[in-house]
Amino acid sequence: MFRKRNGDINWRNIILLSVALICLIVGVILLLIDPIKNMKRQKITDDMMESIVNNSQATFVVKSSGNEVSGEEFEYYYGDEEVAGSSIDYDTMVAELPEEVVLTALGSIKIASVDIDIPLWDDATIVSLRYGAGRLAGTADPGQVGNMTVLGHRMRAEGKLFNRLGEVKIGDTIEITCIDGNKYIYVVDTIHEAVLPEDLDYYIDYDDGTGKQITLVTCTPTGVATHRLLVVGHILE
Fold first, then answer.
1. DSSP 216-228
2. Hey, which residues does 134 pair with through a beta bridge?
3. Where do the domains of the chain lie?
4. Across residues 208-212, what is the average pLDDT?
5. Where does the pLDDT of residue 9 fall: very low under 50, low under 70, confident under 90, or very high at 90 and above?
6. What's the pLDDT at 79?
7. How many whole angstroms separate alpha carbon 102 and alpha carbon 127?
């Protein structure tokens, strides 16, 4: 029987260890991609929020190819267009985006009970929803009679964007502070916990005749997004 000398190299074991190490490194990188992207997005969003609040800055220029949100291709509305789980439509819209996009701030939206305090943009587009919530085109302005519909992503990361919207309760307040300093406070009086995406038009009525209303829309359940969570409030006067 032949025995290996002490100086012999077991190449098979080295190859197996190398493959295992590579797999481990790749796995760690994949696990860190989303957290790193979220940290980067949060830093940009925080800087925007500071400028909106302290300097009344209303416009920001961002790259349309940056800070994509995981699952955004399965969201509900983007401006005047609807994406209902169609990756083809989403890819087409992304391909048609200019290299840079101008975001225009209405102000900020704050829900103190769940620690939401983020920029409120004057549109709800693919890009704007990566950096805050957005008012759906054609719906009421803050403080106006009618229904102001606001869209936001249900992020997986705790406390990011509309991640905690499902914790809002009847009687909580939604505070909209406009870029001009005007402030409007809505009191939550209705919550629709599971609306089918195809039924959204019934709830997003541009003027439902119930006064000065706000409707917040996000996906539910978190990470699954088969339905939509709607939080509805009316202005406190």
1. EEEEESTTT-SEE
2. 121, 151
3. 11-235
4. 79
5. low
6. 44
7. 9
Among candidate residues 92, 99, 102, 3, the one with its CA nearest the CA of residue 48: 102
Q: What is the mean pLDDT of residues 84-89?
A: 49
Rounded CA gap, 178 and 27, in Å?
A: 44
Query: Which has the closest alpha carbon to 73: 190, 219, 193?
Result: 219
3-state DSSP call for residue 17?
A: helix
Q: Which amino acid is at 101?
A: V
Domain topology for 11-235: Sortase; Chain: A; (2.40.260)
Distance (Å, whole) CA 17 – CA 23: 10
DSSP string, 104-164: EEEEEEEEGGGTEEEEEESS--TTGGGSSEEEPTTSPPTTSSEEEEEE--B-SSTTSBTTT
